[in-house]
Design brief:
Blueprint: H1 3-14, H2 23-31, H3 63-87, H4 101-124, H5 135-145, H6 148-161, E1 165-171, E2 176-182, E3 193-200, H7 207-210, H8 214-223, H9 227-235
Antiparallel strand pairs: 1-2, 1-3
This protein binds fe (ii) ion.
Fe (ii) ion binds next to helix 3.
Length: 241
């Protein structure tokens, strides 16, 4: 029996028993044959978003840096998809907290997906003219930090203290903004906090342009920040009244 005929036969045999299930659920039921456990449903793979043209002609962060940086981002996308494929066939019976294929895949998936999400925020809000935010974002910053200047001082200093990222994020539970620190793509996110700005402090973000002078790179980042993009991200956050 061919694979297609086998699938059709199974669906026909199962039709009475699964009346009312959607076509997608039928596929899950079919995949469950043998194990009795529903299989991982098919989800779309990650896809790399293109760089905005304005990010390739900035004053202070070179085109070469951006092009090399984008290659790393595409690498995170490819590896995330590779890991998701591997997870479909990983042996769950060998799960172990010291080492197991399942553990390794899930740990590294968090790194790859973090790399995707962090860089999509970062690239999206570069290519602007710096300055200061306006509207509800400025109001929230003033409320939670005291002033824009106080926020920027903390954001810049956190950028010197971090080994990977600074995220300006809105904690949905506290109803407040905070500058969170990350040492890697997957550390240290806070549950239920939505990042609206992300400063990459990995050396790959600035070494071509500034060698080890991260402070001057942060100056360049601030001058090229597109506050419109940050404000748009903040406007989409379901905030507490
Ligand atoms: Fe990066």
């Amino acid at each position: 029996m061919t694979e297609t005929n086998s699938r059709r036969s199974f669906l026909q045999r199962s039709a009475l028993g699964v009346a009312g299930l959607s076509v997608a659920n039928l596929a899950l039921v079919e995949d469950a044959v043998g194990s009795g456990i529903p299989a991982v449903p098919a989800v779309a793979p990650y896809a790399a978003k293109p760089l905005k043209p304005s990010t390739l002609s900035m004053n202070g962060i070179s085109r070469r840096t951006m092009e090399e940086h984008y290659k790393l981002y595409v690498g995170y996308v490819n590896k995330a998809n590779e890991i998701l494929e591997a997870l479909k066939t990983v042996d769950h019976s060998k799960a172990n907290q010291t080492f197991s294929p399942l553990r390794a895949l899930k740990v590294e998936l968090s790194f790859a997906v973090g790399g995707i999400k962090n860089h999509e925020i970062y690239f999206d809000h570069l290519g602007g003219n710096g300055g200061v935010p306006t509207g509800t974002l400025l109001e929230q910053i003033n409320r939670d930090f005291g002033s824009y200047e106080a926020w920027e001082r903390d954001f810049r200093a956190t950028g010197l203290a971090a080994r990977g990222w600074v995220w300006l994020a809105y904690d949905l539970d506290r109803g407040a903004l905070f500058n969170y620190l990350g040492d890697a793509q997957n550390t240290f996110p806070i549950w239920n906090a939505v990042p609206v700005a992300a400063l990459d402090t990995y050396e790959h973000a600035y070494f071509i342009d500034y060698a080890t002078d991260r402070k001057t790179y942060i100056d360049a980042f601030m001058k090229n920040l597109d506050w419109n993009a940050v404000e748009a991200r903040f406007a989409a956050v379901p905030r507490k009244p």
